[in-house]
Structures are given as C-alpha cells and as structure tokens.
Amino acid sequence: MTWVKIAHLLNDTLVHRGPDDGEGFNAPYLSMTMRRLSVIGLDDGWQPIYNEDQSLAIIANAEVYNSIEVREKL
C-alpha cells in the first residue's frame, strides 16, 4: 500500500469531523489531506489553496471568528 493511499484512508476515518469535503494534494514526497465542515462560506474555502501557476499548494487549518466584522472593513 502506498503512502498516498494510507493518507487518504486516514482522511476517510475523519469524515465525522468534516463531512462536507475531503480533498488532498500529492507530490513525489508529500501527501496532504484535509476534511471540511462548511459552516460559513459554503461556496468558497475549498482546499488545497494554490498560487497563480499552481506550483505551490497549502492546506490550512484556520478559522476567522470575527469574519463578518473583517468583511465589512475590507
């Protein structure tokens, strides 16, 4: 079994923590996965997040608790 397959199997065991999405990123020496629970911003926030030419990817565990106030300022 490959590391990529193991990472995705482990991610599948966390479906109860993020039932709305489960994505991943695979590179020759790296496999990242994440689960998503959509509470606010149902149409955006999909991961991994890529730069303009998709040469870099990030999976972030973040939450902005005052997102409504921040959005008003932006």
Overall description:
With 74 residues, the protein is α+β, with helices and mostly antiparallel strands. The protein has one domain: Glutamine Phosphoribosylpyrophosphate, subunit 1, domain 1 (4-Layer Sandwich), CATH 3.60.20.10. Helix content is 23%, strand content 24%. Strands 1-2 form a two-stranded antiparallel ribbon. The chain has a two-stranded antiparallel ribbon with strand order 3-4. β3 and β4 form a beta hairpin. The longest helix has 10 residues. It is flat, with a radius of gyration of 14 Å.
Outline the secondary-structure elements.
Blueprint: H1 3-12, E1 21-27, E2 30-36, E3 49-50, E4 57-58, H2 67-73
Antiparallel strand pairs: 1-2, 3-4
How would you summarize this macromolecular structure in one to three sentences?
The protein has helices at 3-12, 67-73, and strands spanning 21-27, 30-36, 49-50, 57-58. The protein is of the alpha+beta class and 74 residues long. It has a single domain, classed as Aminohydrolase, N-terminal nucleophile (Ntn) domain (Glutamine Phosphoribosylpyrophosphate, subunit 1, domain 1, 4-Layer Sandwich).
